[in-house]
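Z., the sequence and structure:
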Amino acid sequence: MSQSETKVITIFFRIAIYCNFIFLQNIKTSEIVKQLVAEENAGELQKCFGSRMEFGTAGLRAAMGAGISRMNDLTIIQTTQGFCRYLEKNFSDLKKRGVVIGFDARAHPSSGSSSKRFARLAATTFISQGIPVYLFSNITPTPFVPYTITHLKLSAGIMITASHNPKQDNGYKVYWENGAQIASPHDKGISQTIEENQEPWPQGWDDSLIDSSLLLHDPYVTINKDYFKDIQKHCFHRNINKETKLKFVHTSVHGVGHEFVQSAFKAFDFKPPLAVAEQKDPDPEFPTVKYPNPEEGKGVLTLSFALAEKEGAGIILANDPDADRLLVAEKQESGEWKVFSGNELGALLGWWIFTCWKNQNQDPTAIKDVYMLSSTVSSKILRAIALKEGFHFEETLTGFKWMGNRAKQLMDQEKTVLFAFEEAIGYMCSPVVLDKDGVSAAVITAEMSSWLATKNLSLSQQLKAVYDESILPLSTSLWH
């Protein structure tokens, strides 16, 4: 072994031994480090301790496991301590308003990590500083966190999720008081305060302390009731929904979406969608798919296709594991299935949501305050529809953090933001959530499909009409 190699190993052994002392709070993580040291596994030690995770506008996302480059009890505590101090600098009323914390169903048994464990540690950090925490008592879709912030007028929110990443990953997603994902310079400010608050605060590891705290609140029941009441504002064809002959298959891909999409269908007076039994319950192993990402297309929908064929269903709705994205497939007359791209469903939802708004607003001057948004990597179809219909379209940089923050700015100017989307199957169909929301998108897609069926039209046929009408001015549009 060369002198340089020996030096590298020595350095990482020192880091590992130091961090191992801290990780004694978590026996499983501690054992991982001890084993790496015993094996003199310099390569893996470097991966674990070579560099700290970088906090950005998307928060954190990394594999769960030991080390400062991984998601674990220590890095969650350090991150939350920094975030807490940053919020204290920015909100004089933080101890009055508080924060919300949600989590998905991810878990990593070998390191003792789970989204629920991380959420409780984050709550412990805030409560130890006298800050109220609205901690969901059970798994929730990611959109419930931004909804809760604005609905309860909180200072900020955290969602513990890695969305559709591989099973070993987890993440720490942060929202500001406006209900949108943080944008710069907040990321840099939070990153700095994380660096300044590395040593765990007293009692920071003991999440059992929060259970008896008067600062701990559970918003689960209230938010479930209020969210579904709010999205009913986008239900315009309740009688059609009740009577539709269309059958829908839904898969939550082993994530959190099942219960919430069932509730959304009930709120819109639909019969329950047919659930893919093998995938409806949360399972951090994601056993039936290679990757739990609906963007993979047909590979994720194998079981959904089988159920749809068996039950005679014509529409498949697939959420990613944290239910903020939606993939849609439709059976064609040929018997083949068409899986809609994010741009295609964005075109359909944009058309539908504007159509519904137009039918509800007969004042021709109202359109001057109507906006739709999409990101620069997405289709320009909304721009074409806007030019034809007379409403405003704006394009933002890539990511819902830009669309959510811009939507809030427009709403503060008393503008009406109807819809925003990104080609990565993310849709904001209601301004009550200033982020992508796969739950509301699923039920609104179902209503659109059911209405089209009364006109003997499929989603595919209507998509062609949307493209044709957006390019060629027609004297009569399909919705008149």
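Residues 147 and 227 are 8 Å apart (CA to CA). The longest strand covers residues 169-175.

Let me know what you think.
H.
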